[in-house]
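B., you asked whether I could sanity-check this one before it goes into the benchmark set. Here's the sequence:
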Amino acid sequence: MLLIFALLGSVPVSAEPPARMGDYVVDSAGALTGDDAGRVRVAVDRLYTDHRVRLWVYYVEDFDGKSAQQWAAQTASASGFGSRDMLLAVATGAREYWLDGDAPSGVSDQELDNVLANEVEPALRDSRWADAAVLTADGIGTAISGGGGSVKGLLIVALIVAAGLAALVWWSRRRRKRRAAAELAAARQIDPDNTAALAALPLEALHARSREVLVEIDDALRASDEELQLAIGEFGATATAPFSAAVSNAKAAAAQAFRIRQQLDDNIPETPQEQHRLLMELLTTAGRADRELDARVAEFDAMRDLLIDAPNRLDGLTRDLVELTGRTPASEAELARLTAAHPASVLAPIADNVRMAGERIAFAEQNIDAARTALGLPVGQQGGAVAAIRTAESAIGQARTLLDAVDNAASNIQQARDGLPAALDELRKDIAAAAELAGYGGAELAAAVTAAQQTLDTAAGEADSDPLSAFHAAVSADAELDRAAAAATDRKLAAEDLRRRLESALIDAQTRVTAASDYISTRRGGVDATARTRLSEAQRHLDAARGSAGGDPAGALGHARAAADLAGRALREAQTSVNAWEQNTTPFSGPGNSTGAILGGIIVGEILRGAAGGSRHRSGGFHPRSFGGSAGRGGRGGRF
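And here's what the prediction gave me:
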C-alpha cells in the first residue's frame, strides 16, 4: 500500500527542483546544524539495520512551485527508489512536507498517522528539523516492531501538551478554524456508504461537505453528459445505451440530493437531528450518483479511444471551427441589435456570450494544433492527443451553445412578445369574469383581482422594452387570479381555462430554466452549489408540471410557476457567484485562455483540485474533464 502524507502551505518564493539523491540525508536548505546531520544518519542507519527499510531525508527551502506530492514523486523517480525506500521531503521555508513510499509490511495507516501527527508534526512546527527525521525513522521502526512510542517521543508529546495548555486562550479561535478544516478534510475521506462514520461527523462538517459534493457531482454530470452526446453521435444510441442509462440514473440520484439541499436551505427550519439525518441522506445519495458514473469509466474510455480515428476527428473539429468562426460576426451583430432594442436586464444572461464563444474557439484551435503535433510523435508517445481532442470538443460544444443562445434570444423574446397580447387579453377577461364571482370569492379573489389589474397596467407598458418580463408577470398574475377564481366557480369549467394558462406557464418556465442552465453550463467553474440547487429544483418542478399536466392541471401550474421562480433565482445567484469568482481569480497561465476554460469547466487545474490520489507518478497541470464521477479523493492532510 502506498502511503502519502502531505501538508500544503503557501507558495514559496524561491525554487528547489527535484534531483537524484546521492546520500541518505541531503540538506539543501541548511536546516541541520552541529551534530544534527549525524543524529539523522544514525537513526536512518538504525532503521535499515533493524528492519531493512531505507529512509531518505531531503531538506529544501521550497518545492519549486510544485505540490509537495509532485516534488517528492519526481525526486523518488529520479533516484530510482524501490518498494523498500521511503522519502521524507521537508520544505523548511514553505513549511510543508511529504512522506512518500510503500508502507512497510505489517504497519497500518493508523500507526503511521499516529507517528506523523503526534511526533513528527510537532517537531516540524517547532522547526526541530533533525528531530522530525529521527522521530520518523524511530516511529516507523517501532510500528514495525509492534511496540509503543519511545520514551523520548512521549516526553516530546508531554512538552507539547504543556505548551499548548499555556497558550490555549491565544490559540482558541485559530484552533476552531483549523478543527473545522480538519473535520471537512476527514469528511472528504469517508465513503458515502459508511453511515457510521458520517454519523460521527459534526453538523458543520456535514453541511460544508454536502455543498462541495453537490458542486462535484453536478460538474461531473455536465461533463459526462457532454461526452456522452459526442459518443452517441459517433457510435449510435445502441452502443452507448449503458452509458446513457448510467447518466440517467446518476442524474436522478443527484436531483434527489439537490432536493434535500433545497429543503435544508428553505425558510422552514429543521432540528439539528433532522439536519443530521438529511445531510447523511444527501451524501449517500450523491455518492450513489458518483458510483453510477465511475462504474462505466473504463468501458467508456475503451469504446471511445480517440487515437484510433484521431486524424479524421481533428478534420471534423477543424470544420466545426470554421463553421463557428463564420457564425460569430452574425451573432455579434445580432447581440448588438438586441442590446440596442432591449434593456440590459433582459440580455444579462447572454451579454458576454459572443466574447466567451471567441475564447472557446481560440482555445479549441490551439488544442487541435496540439493534438496534431502529438500525433506526429512516435507510436506510444501520442497520448497527449487524446486530452487535446477532448478539450477541443468540449470547447467547441460550449462555443456553439453560447452562440446558439444569442441567435435564439430574438426568437425567445419574439415568442414572449407574440404571446403577450393573448396573455393580456386573457387577463382582462378573467378580471371581468371575476367581477361576477365577487360574492363567492371573498378576500382572496378581491386581492387577486387587484394584483391582476396592477400587473395588466404595468405589463402593457413593458410590452416593447421587456416582453419576457411582461409575459412572465402576466402569466403569473393570471395564474394567481385563476387560483382564486377556481375556489369560487365550477371546477370543471375552471379546469378548461387552467389548461390554457398552463401552456403559457410551461413556456415561461422552460425559457427561464434553459437560460439558467445555459449560463451555468458555460460558466460552471465559477458557480457554487446554491445556484445549482435552485436550478435542479426548477428542473424537477418543470418535469413535474409536464408529467401532471394531463391529470392535474392546477398542480401542474403550481409546479410550472415554481420552476420559473426557482430558475430566475438560480440565474441571479449564478451571476453573483461568477462575478465573485472573476473578481477573486488571478488569470492562470497555460495553453490559450486557460482562465476562461477553467470558468467553463472544460479543464480543471491541479492547483484547484488539490493533491489527490496515492500514485507516485501522478502528473500535474491542467486536466480536461471527461466522462466519470467527481473523483474528489485525497490523502491525509494538515499544516505544521
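One thing to flag: The longest strand covers residues 54-60. Otherwise nothing jumped out at me.
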